[in-house]
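Researcher: Quick one. two chains, 599 residues in total.
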Amino acid sequence: MTTPIVEMRGIEKFYGRIHALRGVNLHVSKGEIVGLLGDNGAGKSTLIKVLSGAVPFTSGEILINGRTVELNTTNDAIDAGVETIYQDSALVPQLSIARNLFLGREITRGPLGRLDQGQMNAVASDLLRRVGITKNIPPTTPISSLSGGERQAVAIARAMYFDSEIIILDEPTNNLGVAETQGVLNFVRDARDKGHACIFIAHNIHHVFQVVDRMVVMRRGEVVADDLSPKTSTIQDVEDIITGEHMAA
Amino acid sequence: MTDEKTSAPTGAAPPREVDFLRRLSATPELGPAILLIVMLVVFTAINPAFISLNNISNALTFTVELGLIALGMTLLMTSGEFDLSVGSVFGFTAVVMWTLINSTALGMPLAFLIAMSVALAIGAINGFFVTRLKIPSFLVTLGMLLVVRGSALWLTSGFPQRTWDAGEQWLAEWLVGDFCIGGAGDFCTGGLRVYMSLIWFVLIAALLHYVLTRTRFGNWIQATGGNPAAARNRGVPIRRVKMLLFMLTSALAGLTGIISSIRVSAANPNSGTTYELEVIAMVVIGGTALMGGRGTILGTVLGVLILRLMRNGIVLIGVPGLAYNIFIGAIILGMMALHSALERRHNEGT
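Model:
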């Protein structure tokens, strides 16, 4: 097994008296797509928020490339190479593709933090081509004019540009059509092939099976399976683990 | 709004002329610009005195004072918040400054700085309640409106403060001085009298337009209003952005109140009442989205001119001044319908 890029060790999280994460261990390696599965309330979102710096954890340790890191803010996580692509909250509809790509990391020059729009547009155009958007979409196009699949592609392009080693995709195929879903799955495979470590969260197990190398299942704040392969497991097996049916059988 | 040109990505590229018209129709400033031109033409046709230099000079004086508050409010509303306390801050800041000058030995510059600090502090308190205590800005600034207005009345026992001591002081000259272009004599006969408030308005409008459309902070303002969760996830300090904008809006309201008090030679604790609604109307008529994410300083300048020239114009053409609100309400409804339709078309890429 290759050395993990990211390791979460014994992560505990309390929301008041609610024990949301119970000693969770998770690791993802370079060039690996890990599917994170579980029912509502299983703890997937909390775990992802912890790794993306959006929520502080109560105890435990996070290592990136073997070094312990403090992820107290989303900026900390981005600086550490963790890019999170949320289902609805990744992009600003009113802003252009280029401005979204560089949001929080704008290229500036001159007084008052003047945007270098020429440079930002040039990079955005190149990135759109790299993620396979071949239609003639100017980088000044507002996000609100793009389809759901194109929006996810822009979010993924952002992760690739900033060389994020770890890309977290939270329900990236929600509300997408068949063709757009396949496009997003291709983007994820492409990111994996370029060496990124990906954590893929989706309610649709069929989508997960199409793209991941390994599956981790959470239930009630705990990891109950962490080495399921889509090649050796069936969808029914995984569903049983998610619901706890396998324990009853 | 961004300063970038936009186009929809669907299908084959349209002919250049069609693309230009499509982009033009999606511009939020188009509607107010057309309305302003129509107003100018109609008012001038009915009463040519409307376009006289004397009338323009008079109309612009008060127009830009209220417009200064609208400029700050534009950025605040673009970030998804608004401030109902600006009218009270307008009255209170001037009262604080002139109370200090009249009842102590403080000079005007120091009293001015103290009064402006009070205005900034009011903005900071608004920002604190909204960003830290998570209370909607409507409720916070409504409460502040009452607190500040009550403070102004309490401080002055309800009586105006005299301000004619401003005299020829350099600060007063800088704030409300005037100069004559092309005219003669004390009354600038045959020329255009330009007040310093117009210069301040133009300079601040240009600066805020630059900040909103060309800078990183402008990008953060639009992102904060457009999708706060996305902005936060990208590391944009949305609390700090909103806090600064509350302070900016309050400071501009205070500055405007001081300018007005010197111009009219009185700091009335009741002055600025209902200005908040007129300022918000100016901003939304100009094309800034009430819910945030899209803002335009140029549109606000147009909105300011529309409302103030409307007030001036209807009097000149003989419509009773009391009917002013009917026109304003109708303009707001019409502009909202237009902006909504344009935005729908734009989002659908048609």
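Chain B touches chain A through 35 residues (CB under 8 Å).
Researcher: Thanks, that's what I needed.
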